[in-house]
Amino acid sequence: MTRTLIPLAAVAAxxxxxxxxxxxxxxxxxxxxxxxxxxxxxxxxxMTGCYLTLTSTGADTLVSxxxxxxxxxxxxxxxIESNMMMMRQLPxxxxxxxxxxxxxxxxxxxxxxxxxxxxxxVGQTIPLTLNFAAAxxxxxxxxxxxxxxxxxxxxxxx
Length: 158
Known about the structure:
mainly beta, Immunoglobulin-like, 1 helix, ten-stranded mixed β-sheet, 158 residues
């Protein structure tokens, strides 16, 4: 009996030493999402914008997004430069400060769906897989609809 217990104890010790260190100590970084919404694709266009809010328990970065609904997805920022609305891709991703909510919205940071194969219509839902540097992938269901009108309410197409 003793000969059986010693090898079992050794195996248990080895498995414990190989386990993920974050599983027993501090909780892993997590990202909460809310309000995932994508605009319907405009007639004759194959792109649109998506919006949601993200709250990370620790500092993280949204590094990429994917969906079967689009051939390509980019993370963008919009800002006013020289009295003109400018949009550019964020190739390094979108930083998420620890414990703060980051809102992706029209006229600001947003997700662009490009090469959308089939029109997206109001009421549909599509999956968006958000890939975070620390938290890993998080898949949300985004509803196709119109965002609330604000100062950028006339900014159509994305």
